[in-house]
Design goal:
With 882 residues, the chain is of the alpha/beta class. The strands form five sheets. Strands 9-6-10-11-5-12 form a six-stranded parallel sheet. It has a five-stranded mixed sheet with strand order 14-15-16-17-18, sandwiched between helices.
Length: 882
């Protein structure tokens, strides 16, 4: 290799002009270290950061004597302390430490020396130790490098780098000259900054405004990104952009503007492939967390097939629990459907492994053996997918594979140290350490024709015709050392050359000069929106540029001339959204037929809000299906129904004594919650779960006693009812169909809550669901049954049957209408609505519309009822306010 340009901040940046020359390279510290180790034969298998932390943890365990300075914190956070002390150790080695502090009496440094005597044989070398090994080898061998051109002064580098570079043919950096054309505003600015050396004692009294220095600001980063995308599209390729933050936003704007992206992807631990391992491991926590399980099933990168995951997720959305007859029937059905593709035993085992695995409580912790097995399966899963043809997928899977491998190595190290179980807190910490800062977006890479781009101004090492500094907001500050003055003196005495904070701050400030001094023709400074903290370098520039104008991007976009030469704006004609109307009309000949049986859920909107019925049934419009766990209120009602159903599906249960019923309930409730209501077992739900069980227990007992004292001879839960009418076929499911000793029947509809609401329905003769069920029973038996609501939450029976249940007062109708009369009202209103449809009219009953004479039902029809808008999936299709 002939020539290397080297700078500490060049890794991951592109702040130079690419040259087509064999044997030359521009490298940062990781790149140059790797090259030197290859040339000197010092290459070793890489060790993950997580593995080094775990090894350091064991060193700390062995060094504990009861008086070490780190022991108190170590008992609370083993891995966190191990990581912090490992960082100290690596920083000291890079600054020239030899592993000892001879003659020191400071307790913390003495403890670190004792720790290092163990760690130097256990913990893989960090950058400082690797540099020291390179420096020692350079005394005997020389790499095939003609010259190393430094981009920053030698004295600003860490000591170990200085020791290495002094043994190599280096070229010191030259002072930056004034590059702008004489007489331009940019020339005046560069001359002033170089002359004053960051002290703006003299100002440029008058700016010509020749465009060589441009300062812009937008009201939002989104607007400035759109403007800058247009600017970069028009500029030639001899342009560099400094992007300290929000590079993803700028790339999105460039992509939308059909221009080459800069590839400024921000690292994230939330990339899809990196999420699989944490989700798979959190499934081992007891009690089961259904939210995690749903996330696992919905995740696109998954060891389970997509059609299997979708079906299981749908099951959990309706029946949130694992296990039970329904669950096992579903898994078996999935296995049978895949019989021709895989072994049924293998498919079933895979489904059960990822969804039914043994779960462990927080008190006991997680067995390392189980964690290692599961992590290795994830590692193997990604390894088999590295052969994909998609480059983006390959990069994503490789990052996830490395993450899983690093985590697996750390777990194996813990196991070798004698650890058998770890807590969930340690698991989370170790996962975070294995992922580090995450990875960039594999789909967001620099494209052909992209401008040079850097995140750190120190990485800008070549001059460009145009330089843009985007979002000049406040940078990260230089951090102070965590060691006392006495400890720092002992470190210096031991040859550890710690970076001086003032020198670091000065070096950082000098790096801020580079974007200004390396611009040849044009410098563009993009300020953040008003209210955000500005970069300190801007205040320095502002002092020198007393007459500089800050242009508002929004004004430029709508003005006669825009800052980007070809940017144009177009007036958009305002188009109002459709307004709400009480009536929709359509051509009478465009009739729609509905020949399916009507249930109460389909009949109710037809009667009381026709547009909902039309959009739902004939039009078959469906909202986007988002699988989610049911809310507590809905879930408790469903579980209560299932418990009563199971009770009276058990032979002979109607005759059980109270003691038998209580024993049966206590033996069944936990299983039911596990299999169909595991939401109540999740963290933070213990109180709700206990309250629900106690309330439901009392409610079931009360219902059982009511049925026995009423002389009920038969209970049929979830009874299918079918029939017909002059308006259409009918069907429904009665929660409980009761038969009395005299052969008469009674229908009970169970509700979880709403005692006041359902009492009023009975009083006002608006209990249409019960009337529909009663009509179907009457059609089958020839007589109208009595009806009742049972409110499970309150263990309260509401019925119109006089003297049927001991201790229950019948609800009296205010109008004293009979059930046949109410049913005739339903039929009249039904026929009225169908006549409106035939006339091409659909009523839209929503807030913001007023009824007219067409809205009045027949005199002998059902009175209008207000439907709850919270359950109207088509609310926003009714129109909008103007």
């Amino acid at each position: 290799m002939q020539l290397i340009r080297f700078g500490m901040n060049l890794d991951g940046n592109r702040g130079w002009i690419l040259i087509d020359q064999v044997g030359s390279a521009t490298l940062g510290q990781q790149g140059l270290l790797n090259v030197l180790e290859v040339h000197l034969g010092l290459v070793q298998a890489p060790t993950s950061h997580a593995k080094r932390i775990v090894d350091m943890r064991q060193c700390l365990v062995e060094c504990c004597t009861g008086s070490r300075f780190f022991e108190g914190s170590f008992k609370v956070d083993e891995l966190g302390v191990a990581e912090q002390l490992l960082n100290w150790r690596d920083q000291w080695y890079e600054a020239g430490w030899n592993g000892d502090f001879a003659g020191t009496t400071l307790p913390r440094l003495q403890d670190m020396v004792a720790l290092e005597k163990v760690a130097q044989h256990r913990v893989a070398a960090g950058i400082g130790q690797r540099l020291q090994a390179v420096s020692q080898q350079l005394a005997y061998r020389q790499p095939q490098i003609d010259a190393i051109e430094l981009t920053e002064a030698m004295e600003t580098l860490p000591l170990c780098w200085q020791q290495v570079l002094k043994q190599l043919p280096i070229v010191e950096p030259k002072p930056l000259p004034v590059l702008a054309s004489v007489g331009t505003d940019l020339f005046a600015l560069q001359t002033t900054l170089l002359a004053d050396q960051l002290v703006a004692s003299s100002t440029i009294e008058k700016f010509k405004g020749d465009g060589s220095v441009q300062v812009v600001r937008a009201e939002s980063a989104l607007t400035s990104s759109q403007w800058l995308a247009e600017f970069l599209k028009q500029a030639n390729e001899d342009t560099a952009v400094l992007i300290p933050q929000q590079g993803t936003l700028l790339d999105a704007a460039l992509h939308a503007n059909n221009h080459a992206c800069l590839g400024q992807s921000e690292s994230s631990v939330f990339r899809p492939a990196l999420q699989l391992l944490p989700l798979a491991l959190k499934l081992l926590q007891a009690p089961i967390d259904l939210a995690i399980l749903m996330q696992f099933l919905a995740h696109p990168v998954n060891p389970l097939r997509s059609r299997h995951r979708r079906r299981i997720a749908e099951h959990l959305a309706n029946c949130p629990g694992v296990g039970g007859a329904k669950w096992h029937a579903l898994l078996q059905k999935l296995v049978d459907e895949d019989k021709d593709e895989n072994s049924s035993t293998e498919t079933l085992a895979n489904l059960q492994y990822w969804t039914e695995s043994t779960r462990y409580s927080k008190k006991l912790g997680l067995p390392l053996e189980i964690l290692i097995e599961r992590t290795q399966k994830i590692t193997q899963f990604f390894q088999t997918r590295l052969v994909t043809d998609s480059v983006a997928n390959k990069l994503a899977f490789l990052a996830a594979h490395d993450q899983a491998k690093a985590f697996s190595d750390a777990l194996l190290a813990l196991s070798m140290q004698g650890t058998t179980h770890i807590s969930f807190a340690i698991l989370d910490k170790l996962l975070a350490q294995s992922m580090g800062s995450g990875v960039g977006n594999p789909l967001q890479n620099a494209e052909v024709g992209a401008a040079a781009a850097v995140k750190n101004p120190a990485a800008l090492i070549d001059s460009f015709a145009n330089v843009v500094w985007w979002t000049m907001s406040s940078p990260a500050q230089v951090q102070s050392h965590p060691w006392s003055s006495a400890e720092q003196k002992s470190l210096r005495d031991a040859g550890v050359s710690l970076p001086d904070l003032k020198a670091q701050a000065k070096q950082q400030a000098l790096s801020w000069l580079r974007p200004v001094l390396l611009a040849q023709r044009k410098l563009v400074l993009v300020l953040p929106p008003e209210g955000e903290e500005l970069h300190p370098f801007w205040w320095l520039l502002n002092a020198s540029l007393a007459s500089i104008k800050i242009s508002k991007i929004e004004d430029c976009l709508i003005g006669p001339q825009t800052m980007a030469k070809t940017t144009t704006t177009k007036a958009i004609t305002y188009s109002a959204l459709p307004a709400k109307r009480r009536w929709w009309s359509f051509k009478a000949e465009n009739q729609f037929d509905w020949d399916k049986p009507y249930s109460f859920s389909s009949l109710e909107p037809l009667l009381f809000n026709p547009y909902q019925w039309v959009l739902n049934y004939p039009a078959n419009l469906r909202k986007t299906s988002v699988l989610s766990i049911p809310a507590d209120f809905t879930l408790m009602g469903t579980l209560a129904h299932r418990m009563v159903e199971k009770l009276y599906c058990t032979a002979g249960s109607l005759a059980w004594t109270l003691a038998q019923l209580e024993n049966w309930f206590d033996s069944q409730i936990d299983t039911l919650i596990d299999e169909e209501g595991a939401v109540l077992l999740m963290a933070g739900k213990q109180v709700e779960c206990l309250s629900f069980k106690a309330r439901l227990r009392q409610s079931v007992i009360s219902l059982h006693q009511l049925l026995q004292t009423a002389g009920i001879t038969s209970v049929q839960p979830e009874q299918l009812l079918e029939g017909t009418s002059n308006q259409g076929d009918l069907k429904g499911f009665a929660d409980l169909l009761l038969t009395l000793s005299d052969g008469s029947t009674l229908i009970v509809d169970m509700k979880w809550a709403g005692q006041k609401k359902y009492r009023e329905k009975l009083q006002n003769d608006t209990h249409l669901q019960l009337i529909l069920y009663a009509k179907l029973v009457q059609e089958a038996t020839g007589s109208w049954p009595e009806v009742a609501y049972f409110i499970l939450h309150d263990a309260k029976l509401l019925t119109t049957a006089p003297h049927q249940f001991k201790g229950v007062t019948a609800v009296t109708s205010t109008s004293e209408l009979t059930k046949p009369a109410i049913w005739q009202q339903v039929l009249k209103t039904w026929a009225w609505r169908k006549a409106q449809f035939k006339a091409g009219m659909i009523e839209v009953i929503v807030e913001g519309t007023e009824p007219n004479e067409l809205s009045s039902p027949p005199e002998d029809g059902v009175a209008p009822q207000e439907m709850d808008p919270r359950y109207n999936a088509y609310l926003h299709l009714a129109g909008w306010e103007q």
